[in-house]
Design brief:
4 strands, binds iron/sulfur cluster, iron
Length: about 70
């Protein structure tokens, strides 16, 4: 399937302030050690709106959406 997109984080920029988790904690999780895990990196019809919002609101601009090549 072509055109698959994922949200990724640049850990060099992320300061774990959890703004993204505030948008949707089912997609973004910051743990007690200030480490962000992206639980649902796939951009889907269900997650697209929240992921877009998190990308826009991240104060460090650490999140971005990339095209990924899915194997056939
Ligand atoms: S909002 Fe940005 S800086 Fe904050 S935890 Fe999420 S990715 Fe990191």
């Amino acid at each position: 399937m072509a055109g698959k997109r994922n949200v990724i984080v640049d850990y060099g920029l992320c300061e774990a302030n959890a703004v993204c988790m505030g948008v949707n904690p089912e997609i973004f999780h910051v743990d007690d050690d200030d480490h962000l895990t992206i639980l649902k990196p796939d951009v889907t019809a269900d997650t697209e709106e929240d992921i877009d919002q998190a990308v826009r609101r991240c104060p460090r601009q650490a999140l971005s959406i990339v095209e990924v090549d899915a194997p056939d």
